[in-house]
Design goal:
This protein is an alpha+beta fold. The chain is 33% helix and 24% strand. It is built from seven helices and 14 strands. Strand 6 and strand 7 form a beta hairpin. Helix 5 packs parallel to helix 6. The longest helix is centred in the N-terminal third of the chain and has 21 residues. Bound molecules: L-MYO-inositol-1-phosphate. The site of L-MYO-inositol-1-phosphate (LIP) has 13 residues, from strand 4.
Length: 275
């Protein structure tokens, strides 16, 4: 098995499907194991078991690779490839029996704890059983159908925008004020509850754009590659890669308008001074 994007994508698909089938089988008995940043930032026992499964499979399939997972310790590698894992993105949806959740698996080159990593391959296996995937420079797929750039909206005023909110009340308050300013400028807002799903929906044209403050690498690594390889633009407020500060994924037809509207609504340094 090589480090070529196509080979890494096949491994990401295999891992995401095995993990997705595992969590689907556990849904009837899901229990909260603990909370993190707030009482509503839950980790279920299935999150933990799923990440353990992914780590075990990666150690077997790709023993020299590193691992960065949402729920466990970093594992350094020697190959230059790190697997960035979200065992359940959309944990609250999973806990409540809602479909918008996914397993997100990405292979990145470079140090994953900095902004210097590059996604080489990724797979997002969602709660509806759809496998989204991409290999850098080779395209993106919904199951086995190649995603091609669709026609975008004529303007921001007719654009359907996805977003999400943090688990800490003080952050949600400023995010709520921002989305309230954006709402009258767009067709409508959708809040799926899983960044990886949002990014795949942008890739397929089911959303015209998505933005969110405060995402981690594991939320966005696979989905951002899928959106980019489907012809969407993905970044922060400038041309820099998406960061924990702000992730924007948009059809190129509305990128500039959305960016300007977000800046006008206070998107730059939104969490400044908030713990
Ligand atoms: C979720 C993100 C989502 C965000 C949620 C939550 P988790 O990740 O994917 O975009 O709006 O608040 O952070 O916690 O389910 O892995």
């Amino acid at each position: 098995m090589t480090d070529e994007p196509g080979d890494l994508m096949e491994t990401a698909r295999l891992l995401a499907r095995e993990a997705g089938d595992f969590i689907a089988a556990q849904r009837s008995s899901v229990r909260v194991a603990h909370t993190k940043s707030s009482e509503v930032d839950v980790v279920t026992e299935v999150d933990l078991a799923c990440e353990a499964l992914l780590r075990q499979r990666i150690a077997h399939l790709r023993p020299g690779d590193g691992i960065l997972g949402e729920e466990g310790d970093d594992v350094p590698g020697t190959s230059g490839i790190t697997w960035v894992l979200d065992p359940i993105d959309g944990t609250v949806n999973y806990l409540y029996g809602l479909p918008n959740y996914a397993v997100s698996v990405a292979a990145v080159a470079g140090p994953p704890r900095t902004r210097d990593w590059t996604a080489v391959a990724g797979a997002v296996y969602d709660g509806l059983g759809t496998m989204w995937s991409a290999a850098r420079g080779e395209g993106a797929w919904r199951d086995r159908t190649r995603l091609v750039r669709h026609d975008g909206p004529g303007s921001l005023a007719t654009a359907l925008i996805g977003t999400g909110f943090q688990y800490v009340a003080a952050r949600r308050a400023v995010q709520g004020r921002l989305v309230a300013q954006l709402l009258p400028q767009v067709r409508d807002i959708r809040r799926q509850g899983a960044a990886a799903v949002d990014l795949c929906l942008v890739a397929a044209g089911h959303l015209d754009a998505y933005y969110e403050h405060g995402l981690h690498a594991w939320d966005l690594a696979a989905g951002a590659l899928i959106a980019r390889e489907a012809g969407m633009r993905v970044g922060g407020l400038g041309d820099e890669p998406p960061t924990e500060e702000l992730t924007i994924a948009a059809h190129p037809a509305v990128w500039d308008e959305l960016r300007e509207a977000l800046i006008a609504a206070g998107a730059r340094d939104l969490f400044a001074g908030i713990d």
